[in-house]
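Quick one, T. Sequence first:
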Amino acid sequence: MQSFQKPENALKRANELLSIGQQEAALKILHAAIGHKRFRSQGWDAVQEAIMLRHVQLCVDEGKLRLAKDGLHQYRIVSQHANAQSLAKVVAELRTRAEARLAAARAKVGNDAEPSAPEDLDVDAETPENLLLSTLQIIFNEL
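Structure tokens:
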């Protein structure tokens, strides 16, 4: 994995990869940049917010919510004291993108599809008493 001297370079490289359709590689680069020691030790910066917004977008698009969670934990360390509004903005972006994806999935399934009532799986199953009784009858019939 590439190591970037500046977070701006990681964002630039991720945008280049996105322009040629390599979302997975762009996500890996952004995640590596977020987890890098320099990202945490540098302190909050507007570029870091842009990196996190792009990271959240890619995580939701790719369905990699564990990476999004890990990235948010890393970003929280950086931004909670310096700029808490930035952290709130990133979390709100994650929520809106996730809700939009959920709405798209619901539309794909269809809004008219009502959730069906759960089936009672025990209707055809024998009760323990009946099972024991039938076992005893088999044993007595063999004697």
